[in-house]
Amino acid sequence: MIRYHNAKIMTMNGSTAVTEGELWTEGSVIRYVGRQPAVLPEFEREIDLGGNLLMPSFKNAHTHSAMTFLRSFAEDVPLQTWLFEKVFPYEDRLTPDDVYAFDRLAILEYLASGTTAAFDMYFFPEASAAAFSEAGMRLTFCGSISGTAKDVDRLNDQFRKFRHFHPLVSYRLGFHAEYTSDESLHRAVAKLAQAEKEPVFTHISETKKEHEECIARHGASPAQYLDSLGLWEYGGGGFHCVWFDEADRAVFKKKGLWFVSCPCSNAKLASGIAPLTECAEEGVQLALGTDGAASNNGLDPFREMYLGTVLQKLRKNDAAALPAAELLKAATVGSARAMGLTDCDVLSEGRQADMIVIDMKAANLQPAHHIPESLVLSGDRMNVKMTVCAGKILYENGVYTNGIDADAVRRDCASRIARLTQ
Amino acid sequence: MIRYHNAKIMTMNGSTAVTEGELWTEGSVIRYVGRQPAVLPEFEREIDLGGNLLMPSFKNAHTHSAMTFLRSFAEDVPLQTWLFEKVFPYEDRLTPDDVYAFDRLAILEYLASGTTAAFDMYFFPEASAAAFSEAGMRLTFCGSISGTAKDVDRLNDQFRKFRHFHPLVSYRLGFHAEYTSDESLHRAVAKLAQAEKEPVFTHISETKKEHEECIARHGASPAQYLDSLGLWEYGGGGFHCVWFDEADRAVFKKKGLWFVSCPCSNAKLASGIAPLTECAEEGVQLALGTDGAASNNGLDPFREMYLGTVLQKLRKNDAAALPAAELLKAATVGSARAMGLTDCDVLSEGRQADMIVIDMKAANLQPAHHIPESLVLSGDRMNVKMTVCAGKILYENGVYTNGIDADAVRRDCASRIARLTQ
Asked: Which of the four pLDDT bands, split at 50, 70 and 90, describes residue A422?
């Protein structure tokens, strides 16, 4: 067992309360959380956290990890130009080995950011499964098919292949978006989800244009249209949800769906500000994602949380809108549950040890009158001292500790990018 | 001399171009910037930057440094409640020694953020001058009087005392705001500024209420009213400027005034989004500040730059609004010049060596298709490897290297805060 002691602990098991204590792991599992007991067992390693904070790791509930290769490639251009001139032509050239390399670059950033799981939509799933599982990080695929009913065979194949592929890899049914597929696909995905009793995820209402075109096409918003087809009988959720109105949120509330918000990407691409305040008031479940590095341009849960709360204050013209702690829950427990990772959501005995250590002595976190609020409003990736996934320490004090050679990843990516963008 | 070599260098001397080369300092001064010459002199120390980026440091053009003590003290409450119940009563209890201690806490955060100068408005200037000069960081005071003409004597006294107080300390005339002082004060400050040929700064049009009340009171917006009194015959500027209209910006353009924006504070307090896009289009000079840590809640130039650009994209509904590089200029060169620090604005021979090293190998900055854009959209304080002010290395690889004991500062602040907030 490994002992993490002399810690502040925020288990996030029902609250954001912080207590003093310790936590023990055995393999991938948390064996004990609480005050120091009178009798201690033998440990393989004892880690004195020096009063720093142990808390659940961040989970990234919407991303396209391998898009790291297009980070800062084309800035300050309109969305359509960006997509059609600066993204799609380069994505067409990608090989599975490229995706493996660019996923590894994303993983370096995730681990330095305290993120241990990615809900990923991209090409070449075998390559991604290898990159994440080798690095010791969790990957939940989200199906991203587009087209017509016949494309659902591919979704079904991937689902069967990857749902129990590796202890760190899982799969959720999904498709790209309402506007990139037709009704036959939507009905076929709904049928598959009902047959398998599985949740379904999709990009939804990211832009005003897409939201309104669905209404023109189907006489209903994307959320209401897809719900009418029986897509979400076993749950699921949507990515972005920027243009959701009250009726859309009511669908998500009624079906227990996850509203996965990407505040930074929505801001950078001028898509809009999602109604997170209303979601929190109405009891719609919130999760947070970064989207890909090309449209953000970071993979940083702290920035998502910060923007998540301050944009609501601007949008509602109210400094009291959407308390900061709601974002902390969304970025950790909420995102884990959205991805189906209910065994690594909070710090409690029997759960997977997916957790981080935050340097509470850093100047930007002093004083810490209210720790959850400080993490959201003052916290920063430079405060991540340690990232642990499935009980294994993957990142500690700026060093990748699970065999990934950061310099080699960077050089490999640089030469691939030179080839792809020449 | 100290040699910084094997570097990417962004001098920001007229452009954000990046070249390969080296830089030498002698005492506080830059003696050489350019390619490696054929013959090298003797150096006291040679620092191989390993291909990392050397660039001008950030300057914080609006802050209340000692407000670190109220960081995260009261979150998610409306502005008036926050100010009158959670700020003013506690500020009343401050002693000069408290301000010295809380300034030192801010300095730790500034240095870890790559910031080497603060344009500060607060109480007990002697205490602040000691804290900053001892730490080796620059402090430019901004006068912050309120009240009536008789209060201008105090401004004049401070101006005379601090304008040549220490090589790292300077002083700019200023007053708190139009709405906390009467016309006699405004006229007396204008007279002093004209007599001394000095610029003047003030909080201006931060909230809609304050902006509109000035119009009701004086028949003109704060910018137009103050300009009509001859306040800015020798330049100056305003902090926040959220509610500036075209005519207000025209005053700033005509008089060469600095529009000092604080995007994070304005977002967190739900004050609004300043018209930075229009400023850039119209040629109004931009600088960036954090405001105090109690209303932000960080002292982080990266977050200000990021919000500075993405909020414009949301506000203008245009992903191409306000190119990211404009924010990089505002946070470095612009802010330096706003504070009158024209000798440490860019990296060129004869200028003061106020500069930082950015870890370009960090995963979040890879690939670096466009470095200035990457710094703004993907950059982070964890990328600051070194902070140099007046030729002295104050922070290097997470360690404070100029004698400041971070743990002692933290403990001292904690006990003072316990006393103040009990």
From this structure: confident
- Judge if B240 and B287 occupy the same domain: yes
Domain of residue B195 covers: 58-338
**Smallest CA–CA separation between B373 and chain A, in Å?**
7
Q: Are residues B358 and B278 in the same domain?
A: no
B-chain residue closest to A307, CA distance = B307
For an interface test with B, give the residue of A85, A377, A410 to mutate (most B CBs within 10 A). Answer: A377
Average pLDDT value for chain B: 96
In this model, does residue A24 exceed pLDDT 90?
yes
In Å, how far from its chain's centre is CA A400? 21
Give the per-residue pLDDT at A162.
97
pLDDT tens, position by position, A113-146? 999 999 999 999 999 999 999 999 999 999 999 9
Identify the bridge partners of residue B388 per DSSP, sorted by sequence position: B355, B393
Q: How close, in Å, is residue A1 to chain B by CA atoms?
A: 31
Angstrom distance (rounded) from CA A46 to CA A115: 23
pLDDT (average), residues B202-225:
97
Residue B388 has pLDDT above 80, yes or no: yes
Q: What's the pLDDT tens digit per position in B346-384?
A: 999 999 999 999 999 999 999 988 999 999 999 999 999
Q: What is the mean pLDDT of residues B5-23?
A: 97
Would B152 be classed as within a structural domain?
yes
How many Å apart are CA A188 and CA B242, to the nearest integer? 51
Q: What distance in Å separates the CA atoms of residue B6 and residue B11, rounded to the nearest whole number?
A: 15
Q: Is the pLDDT of residue B295 over 90?
A: no
Task: Please give the backbone phi and psi of residue B366, each rounded to the nearest 5 degrees, phi first.
Answer: -110, 140
- When scoring B16, B52, B65, B72 by the number of chain A Cβ atoms within 10 A, the one with the most, hence best to mutate, is B72
CA-CA distance, A370 to B146, in Å (whole number)? 32
Run of H or E residues at A305? helix A301-316
Rounded to the nearest 10 degrees, the angle between the axes of helix B406-420 and helix B96-112 is 130
pLDDT, mean over chain A: 96
CA distances from B136 to B111, B388, B398, B406 (A): 10, 9, 17, 15
Same structural domain, B96 and B222: yes
With pLDDT > 70 as the criterion, what percentage of chain B qualifies? Answer: 100
B73 to chain A: which residues are within 8 Å by CB?
Answer: 367, 369-370
Q: What whole-number distance in Å separates Cα of residue A290 and Cα of residue A272?
A: 15
Give me the CATH number covering residue B374. Answer: 2.30.40.10
User: Does residue A344 carry a pLDDT above 90?
Assistant: yes
- Could A382 and B381 be called an inter-chain contact, meaning their C-beta atoms sit closer than 8 Å? yes
Same-domain check for residues B12 and B131: no
**Number of domains observed in the structure of chain A:** 1
Nearest CA in chain B to A75: B373
Residue A383: inside a domain: yes
Residues of A in contact with B370 (CB under 8 A): 72-73, 75
Q: Is residue A35 part of a domain?
A: yes
**Contact by Cβ (8 Å): A137, A116:** yes
ipTM more than 0.90? Answer: yes
Which H helix or E strand runs over A204? strand A200-204
Token pair of B364 as six digits: 């979040």
Could you tell me if B66 and B200 lie in one domain?
yes
- B304 and B370: one domain? no
